[in-house]
Amino acid sequence: MDIIETACDLIRFKTETGDFETAHKCLDYCKNLFKNTAAKVEIFQKPDTAPVLFISNHAGDDFDVLVLGHLDVVPAPKEMFEPKISEGKLFGRGSLDMKSFAAVALNSMEYVLKNNLNIKFAVMLSTDEEKGSKGTHAFLDAHPKLAAKIVLDNDVGGDILKLINKCKNPVFVKIMAQGLEAHGSTPWEGIDANQKMFEVLANIRKIYPYYSKDGLIPENMWVDTVHVAKISGGDVANIIAKDCEALLDFRLIETSTVENLRKNLEACMVEGVRFEIVSQSVPVVMAENNPYIQDYKNFAESILGEKIAFEQIGGATDARLFAVKGSTVIMHSGSGEGMHASGEYVEIDSVLKLADIQIKFLQKLALAK
User: Which end of the chain is less packed: N or C, by CB atoms within 10 Å?
Assistant: First the structure.
């Protein structure tokens, strides 16, 4: 398989999250790559959820290795869906997040099949990762016994010289303030829901500081954080707001619990304001001395000719759904910049090296069985 050509083909599909029709076309393209092979290919979809592609060389639910990724992307101008190659870089929406690495996974599947590797191997690609992965949850609900000893997670794009061993727990919280409507000229006759929200947010900031590029930057970045993702209150300029809502995005490190967050939020509330935890997950934490991770790291370093460092990130990963089942999760991808931005690109050499690392790791696992 020409990995870069496949990546370019994938980028051409305008698979913005929520466009199920285009997602199906992209998954059909992937399915057709294996039409003359022994691969078992399933395109799964429940009503009102995004489709999921599952490719395997094994009919059961237990796998030695599963590569996890997604094919949906955040919105972008039309021209970003026409891939461009310049100075060793592949530009386009999804080049870094993460269609190039989906192509790596598809290439690994092709290699396993062609060489009849003695390994139970699967590739799982979702199409709504950017907005909550409901399709992935639906697929796993329909396949409750699905498990893998090792999960290769390539959705941590940015630096091939970094191996991620910790991801935070994303917790989304909705705060709702209730006030009393009145004319804007007589605020003493009303209760301003917006003002109540400001008070609560100020209380929250006493516990969870405001970090920004031009303000406070923590010396140790492995800390709990929160940002106000959305805030809305009031209807018109001359009426005191009767209600206000805010959506907060908390990222918790592995030593922080949702229960402790709940207690902190309860202490921050004022009269007329309440909160609801909309969604929560779990952090992904892998020991640096895990033997599978060390083997993978050694292969990567030998191929790259450079040392790889462990790193922690605030972003979430769908691999958490397998980590809770006991899988060893290896989080590693290629290098690039501009994820979710206008200049998104991936370094082509890093894509090819990642593919080489992945195949050699699979070869060793197969030989060890």
Answer: C
Task: Name every residue whose Cβ is closer than 8 Å to that of residue 220 and which is 6 or more positions away in sequence.
Answer: none
User: What is d(CA 274, CA 245) in angstroms, rounded to the nearest whole number?
Assistant: 10
Give the integer Cα–Cα distance in Å for 98 and 268: 39
pLDDT at 132: 84
| C-alpha–C-alpha distance, residues 78 and 168, integer Å | 33
Q: For 85-157, where are the alpha helices, taking DSSP H only?
A: 100-114, 134-142
- If pLDDT is split at 50, 70 and 90, which confidence band does 369 have? confident
pLDDT score for 158? 84
What is each CA distance from 83 to 112, 157, 351, in whole angstroms?
A: 28, 18, 15
Q: What is the pTM of this model?
A: 0.88
Q: How far are the Cα atoms of 47, 62, 117, 215, 366 from residue 369, in angstroms, in the given order?
A: 40, 15, 10, 53, 6
Chain-centre distance for alpha carbon 110: 25
* 311-338 pLDDT tens trace: 998 877 889 999 999 999 999 999 999 9
The strand pairing partners of 52, in sequence order, are: 44
CATH number of 169-279: 3.30.70.360
Q: Where are the beta strands (DSSP E) in the chain?
A: 40-44, 52-56, 62-70, 84-86, 89-91, 121-126, 147-153, 162-167, 169-178, 225-233, 243-252, 273-279, 284-285, 309-313, 328-331, 336-337, 345-347
Span 177-234, pLDDT tens digits = 999 999 999 999 999 999 999 999 999 999 999 999 898 998 888 999 999 999 999 9
Q: d(Cα 133, Cα 20) in Å, to the nearest integer? A: 13
Give the separation between CA 353 and CA 5, rounded to whole angstroms. 16
> Quick check: helix, strand or coil at residue 69?
strand
Cis peptide before 197 (omega within 30 of 0): no
The domain segmentation of the chain, as residue ranges, is: 3-167+284-368, 169-279
Topology classification of domain 3-167+284-368? Aminopeptidase (3.40.630)
Phi, psi dihedral angles at 118 (to 5 degrees): -80, 70
- State the greatest distance between any 2 C-alpha atoms of the chain, in Å, as a whole number: 79
Phi, psi (rounded to 5 degrees) for 143: -130, 65
- The token pair at 307 is 């040392």
